[in-house]
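Today's session is about reading a structure prediction critically. Students often jump straight to the picture, but the first step is always the sequence itself: look for stretches that repeat, for charged clusters, for runs of hydrophobic residues. Only then move on to the predicted structure, which in these notes is written as discrete structure tokens rather than atom positions. Here is the chain we will use throughout the hour.
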Amino acid sequence: MVGSHFENNRASNGGAIGAIHCSPDVYNSTFIDNLAEGIGGNEAGHTGCPGVGHEGQGGAGGLGGALYADGPEVDARETVLCGNRFVRNRANTLAGVIFRTPNRGVATGYRMRIDRCDFEDNSSALGGVSFIKDNVVTVRGSTFRGNRAGRRNDGSSVSGRFGGLWVNNGSFDVENSTFYDNLPLGLTVESGSAQVRNATLVGSPWNGNVTVRNGLIVNVSCDGAANGGSSVQWPSGSACVNGAMFRDPGLGELGMHGGPTPTLVPSNAEGLAVGSDCPERDQRGAVRSGCVVGAVDPG
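Below is the predicted structure for this chain, in token form.
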């Protein structure tokens, strides 16, 4: 799907797009105010009706506010989401934007690439942005901002976690990306591991086996220090990454500062040039002048 616009659509699962045994590639498209309005998920262990789902299936959905892709494909492959914008999509139960479950285990070759996408103000009871299972996920040049878990479609509060990117039984590799005000968690990996390099994380804690390198971490409270290094944190307090240095980056406002996705530009570039093995370009696509931590090198 290329250059498409989905707005104010509703379904039990997959508010805008629903797919069984396939996972569509989507490029340069917008998804605004779509709803997965079922509730209760699709769960086994219930008394079901013959011919509906599978024996013992219960629940009425509420999965994937924008995109729902369930079940394996004939051949495992990489699903690509590139250049898309997702705004105020909601799911009553799970995954405000992306629900993807091939259900074949992480070693079977299923992959997802999220490239230059913008996720803004999406929400669900669990997984404000995603529930991605059994996948190796790559994230490049993308922004996650203002996403929330613990919220039904009607705005009522429930107990919920994983406000931003959530990968279950898989892994993710994040580079040159921005996480801003995603609550209660910005990044979560379960039953796997994650690598984060040159990301800016503001008010977006993480959870799981996450390694952070060249991170710029602002207003994040941590239970302990993650593996990694060469990161800068502000304000001073308990280190969120091993060896973190405490320096004020002088971040400006989140906005369009060049490139396809919103970013935060620091003013204290000299104090942030403490990274190691940075990517050649930053989130905006600009050539880095030095190894400045975070997603953006102000030059």
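Discussion point for the tutorial: The helical segments are 269-272.
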